[in-house]
Write a structure and sequence with these properties.
The protein is an alpha/beta fold and 341 residues long. Helix content is 31%, strand content 31%. The protein has one domain: 3-Layer(aba) Sandwich (Rossmann fold), CATH 3.40.50. It has nine helices and 14 strands. A hairpin with a 4-residue loop joins strand 10 (223-226) and strand 11. Helix 1 (13-25) crosses helix 9 and helix 3 (61-79) packs across helix 9. The longest helix is centred in the C-terminal third of the chain and has 31 residues, at 310-340. It is elongated and about 70 Å long. 45% of the residues are buried. The structure holds flavin-adenine dinucleotide. Flavin-adenine dinucleotide is lined by residues 9-15, 34-37, 42-44, 46-50, 165-166, 182-186, 190, 201, 203, 235, 276, 278-279, 304, 306-312. Flavin-adenine dinucleotide (FAD) binds at residues 9-15, 34-37, 42-44, 46-50, 165-166, 182-186, 190, 201, 203, 235, 276, 278-279, 304, 306-312. InterPro entries: D-amino_acid_oxidase_CS (IPR006181), DAO (IPR023209), FAD-dep_OxRdtase (IPR006076).
């Protein structure tokens, strides 16, 4: 069999990282990314890109931890290389603060991030409305530069990228041996997944270069995440809302909430408002499926539904998707050699 042809549908952080892992683990594969939108027009471009995991209720915690650890290790290596600036990856230290001590004092990811510890009384004085806090150092992706850097790496590896809206995965059957579905919230329509729902997030991107540390309210709703180009102020979590238009009242509310955590933000300038739809499910859909019509088969790998934590787990889920693609290719090679006998 000639080198297997693999199509990856989607060019957000999940599609690009998955295409990269497939190209690296299967050098004989011809990999093509097909997407109706590329950076800067994806949900992934809106994200803050902080590596702080979100919990998927129906995915075992040890699996989530493994995905996070693989992602952290991979991006930590980039942050320590000469590529760090172009890739938009950097370490950032800060605080997660709580009005009351959380039930779980040690989150499952506490030994993956760096220097996780309880905040001291002196540090907590900065947050008079909060009684408990955790300090740690994690990584942040500046999302549009990171997506462009991934695209550049893909091109250098020989991966093709085409703008194309896929109406049905089956339409790719005549051109590709394996199809990988990384369509994010687009999978709702593409494969009719009714377990996938949008969680709308509105954020502000502001210029306030004096703010160097991240601050996250423990409920995860209000946050200040400094990047290289801008600071992301958040946010909202609106389940089942498909509305991509910014709401001016929400903008004011986010700004006020962030100023109550960091009053110096009143001097922030150049405020831009962004909205994105988190592709949310009870568990990430990371599995093989065989589509079949009239005795003809198409091997599919799904990798979508990372919800509020796509950046935090993308390399872990991409590696697992690439492993599943490897299984599909082994199955194809097995059936083509049996056909020759
Ligand atoms: P997307 O980026 O939406 O990419 C999907 C791709 O599929 C797009 O290219 C789209 O054009 C393409 N596509 C869809 N349907 C089709 C089709 N039919 N045919 C062809 N192409 C198709 N996560 C974190 O870990 N840390 C954070 O700090 C963080 N902050 C966030 C803040 C906000 C406001 C939001 C909204 C999200 C945040 N997230 C964060 C979550 C993160 O953004 C998502 O988990 C992640 O971007 C999902 O990536 P994706 O590639 O699956 O989806």
């Amino acid at each position: 069999m000639a080198g297997p042809k693999v199509a990856v549908v989607g060019a957000g952080v999940i599609g690009l990282s998955t295409a990269l892992c497939i190209a690296e683990t299967c050098p004989s594969c011809s990999v093509t990314v097909l997407s109706d939108q590329f950076s800067p027009n994806t949900t992934s471009d809106v994200a803050a890109g902080m590596l702080i995991p979100h919990t998927y209720p129906d995915t075992p915690i040890h699996v989530q931890k493994q995905w996070f650890k693989e992602t952290f290790t991979n991006l930590f290596a980039i942050s320590n290389s000469a590529e760090a600036s172009e890739a938009g990856i950097h370490l950032v230290s800060g605080w997660q603060v709580f009005r009351n001590a959380p039930k779980e004092e040690l989150p499952f990811w506490s030994d993956v991030v760096l220097g996780f510890r309880q905040m001291s009384e002196e540090e907590l004085r900065k947050f008079p409305q909060h009684r408990f806090g955790q300090a740690f150092t994690t990584l942040k992706c500046d999302c549009p530069p990171y997506l462009l850097w991934l695209e550049k790496r893909l091109k250098a590896t020989g991966v093709q990228m085409h703008t194309r809206k896929v109406a049905d995965l089956w339409e790719l059957r005549s051109e590709y041996d394996v199809v990988v579905n990384c369509a994010g919230i687009g999978a709702h329509q593409l494969v009719g997944d009714m377990e996938l729902f949008p969680v709308r997030g509105q954020v502000l991107k502001v210029h306030a270069p004096w703010v160097k540390n991240f601050i996250r309210d423990g409920d995860g709703l209000t946050y200040i995440y400094p990047g290289v180009q801008s600071i992301t102020l958040g946010g909202t979590r609106e389940k089942d809302s498909w509305n991509l238009s910014p709401d001016p009242d929400t903008t004011k509310d986010i700004f006020e909430r962030c100023c109550s955590l960091e009053p110096s933000l009143r001097g922030a300038q150049d405020i831009k408002v962004k909205v994105g739809l988190r592709p949310s499910r009870q568990s990430v859909r990371l599995q093989r499926e065989v589509l079949s019509q009239g005795g003809v088969k198409l091997l599919v790998v799904h990798n979508y539904g990372q919800g509020a934590g796509g950046f935090s787990v993308h390399m872990g889920t991409a590696k697992e998707a690439a492993r599943l693609v490897g299984e599909c290719i082994a199955a194809l090679q097995g059936s083509s050699s049996r056909a020759k006998l």
